[in-house]
Amino acid sequence: MKIRIALTEDLNAICSLSGQINSMHFSHAPNVFSIPEETENRAFWAEEVNSDSDVFYVAEVEGKIVGLITAHITRNSELCFIANHPVCRIDTVVVDHSCRGKGVGQMLMGAVEEWAKQQKASEIRLEVMEFNKSAQDFYAAGGYEIQSRIMAKTI
C-alpha cells in the first residue's frame, strides 16, 4: 500500500469514495447531509486536490485508490480563553468498504499525524458523528479521546 498526495487524475476514485461516505451519512442524518450532484461533488474535490493550505492524501493499492484523508491547520485567534497553538483538523477520512479493517485508515491517519508534526501542530482534532460507532471505535483505538460534544436541535 502506498500513501501519497492526491492528484487531479484521482478525481474519479475520490468522487466514488466520497459517494460511499456521503450515502452512509445521509441515510443516518438526512437533515445534516445531502447527496450532491456528481458535478458539484467533482468540483468540490477538484478544489480540495488543488488547495495549497490543506493536505490531501490517498491510499493506493495495486493502482486503485482505496482511501483518502484531508486535513488542515488552524490556530485560535478569536477567543482569549482558548489556547493559541496550531491544531491539525482532520476534515474527511474515507476507506473503501472492501478495504476496511486492513490498515488503510491507520496508514492514512499516520500520514496526517506526521504532516501535522511537521506543521508544528500540538494536537489533532476531528469530528465523528454519534451514529458512526465503527469510526468512533477506530479513532479510540488510535488514541483519540472525546474532548467535546457538538449538540444540535432541528428547528
- Counting structural domains, the number is 1
Q: Tell me roughly what share of residues is in helical segments.
A: 25-40%
CATH architecture identity: 3-Layer(aba) Sandwich
CATH superfamily: Gcn5-related N-acetyltransferase (GNAT)
Widest sheet, order of strands: 1-2-3-4-5
Return the average pLDDT rounded to an integer: 90
Q: Encode the helix/strand succession as letters.
A: EHHEEEHEH
Number of helices: 4
Tell me the overall shape. globular
Main sheet characteristics: 5 strands, mixed
How much of the polypeptide forms β-strand, as a percent range?
15-25%
Please give the number of β-strands: 5
Uncertain runs: none
Using only C-alpha atoms, the radius of gyration works out to 16 Å
CATH topology-level fold name? Aminopeptidase
In the CATH hierarchy, what is the class? Alpha Beta
Keywords: Acyltransferase, Transferase
InterPro entries: Acyl_CoA_acyltransferase (IPR016181), Bact_Acetyltransf (IPR050832), GNAT_dom (IPR000182)
Domain N-acetyltransferase: 1-155
Protein name: GNAT family N-acetyltransferase
